[in-house]
Amino acid sequence: MRKANAQGRIPGRPESRGWFRDQARRTVYVNTNKLLTDPHAVDSLEPGKLYLFSYDPKHKATLPYYDAFPLIFPFRVQGNRVWGINLHYLPIPARAALMDELYSLMDNRFKSENRKLRISYEVLNGAARFRAFRPCIKSYLSGHFRSKFLLIPYEQWDIAMALPLARFQKASQAHVYDESMDVVRDASW
Length: 189
Hints:
Helices cover 31% and strands 19% of the residues. The chain is α+β, with helices and mostly antiparallel strands.
């Protein structure tokens, strides 16, 4: 972040997004265990903010594949279930394009550290420009979270979305991306 600031890059600005994404893509290894012990980890999710956590699905035996380390924007929390957009299900170029569209849903009433998206399934489903969200919609059961939630600050969304953090189980990343992009292409409006 200091290097970015020294170069005049301001996180969240359109002209800086490409630079931040390129820097994140160069990261080869991230210690996920260390991330989850971060003092900024929280116990609950707030819709519209970005979180990273460890997850063990209830029905993993019947799922074709799943991400054990989701990076999500939750948009609905009801009872013991959370619905969110897991960015890991898209390859980085498609993820970046979706993020650029999601920034249009930014709630700018708050200071930078409290910014979040004004997001709902209805909003996403109603706009063709968001069609890449379809393969990313996932449901999570509260009894299957295996860590606290690492809240990603708004200024680091572009970095987090480009880091190699996905932990797909039962299928390769390439296979998941192929299927996700098929869903995006087949989305009918």
